[in-house]
Amino acid sequence: MTPEQLITFATVAEHGNISHAAQALHLSQPAVSGQLKLLQEAFGEPLYQRAGRGVRLTAAGEQLLAHAERLRETFRQAQALREAMRGLERGTLRIGASTTPASYLLPYLIADFHARYPDILVTTSHGNTAEIVASLGNVDIALIEGPPGQELPLGTGVTPWREDEIVAIVPSGHPLLDNQHQTLEALGNYPLVLRESGSGVRQIIERAFARRGVAMRVSLEIAGVEGVKEAVRAGMGIGFVSAMSIRHEDGALRRLHIAPEPLVRHFSILLPHAATPSRAAARFIELCGV
What we know:
This protein has 290 residues and is an alpha/beta fold. It is built from 11 helices and 12 strands. Helix 1 (3-15) crosses helix 2 (18-25), helix 1 crosses helix 4 (59-86) and helix 2 (18-25) packs across helix 3 (29-43). The radius of gyration is 23 Å and the shape is globular. The two termini are 43 Å apart.
């Protein structure tokens, strides 16, 4: 049994799939399968079983997983310490961001960071909030909408960030535009366009309607902010987006504030290995103003 085998085992358990784990580890699929086979032979009993295209841990595998995850986290912290000691002369900063901060905040932050540290390569990945939280093992820092809302990897730090208002959007000429502040009861009288499951905006909207006891007449579920905006332009219903996503609109879409109180949320910054962040990640957080 070797540390590499345990780290591979923990990664396979995280992804539930040998092929996906191989991609995350930058190894070939046969190499990952070989390490799992050697580890299983060392224990003398099955640690996992095939389940369709994925794998499922046995009872023995579940017991081993806790030890493997602790070893992997210790290894990651050692890597982060090494990067911190190397300084900012070179390296890579991997940023994950959910839809709204990825589209309307991240480009400006990266431009500022690049001006200060031109030799650091910045790579980005984006998705909805749930997808970014699920990919924390592959990024140095993540910007998401709202709190994580699910269990985070060991050692992850969470910092509340910027405030953001969720507004309703309607086409120019909509009957509700006679008042720029509308209740959920009034909005619920019309068909609604919602983001996909896992979206931070959708979660907030669904909770708000549930608290008020207002039924939702959902006409369309569509991925992404731009998808919602186009559906509203097409007359599919009332959409809900971050206020910052319509600051450059040409007038075809108009915003409505939610009454009697606005729907306000905070973005969060997630920092895997918060105890030993890389210097690049630490400098980027400083640019975020936290």
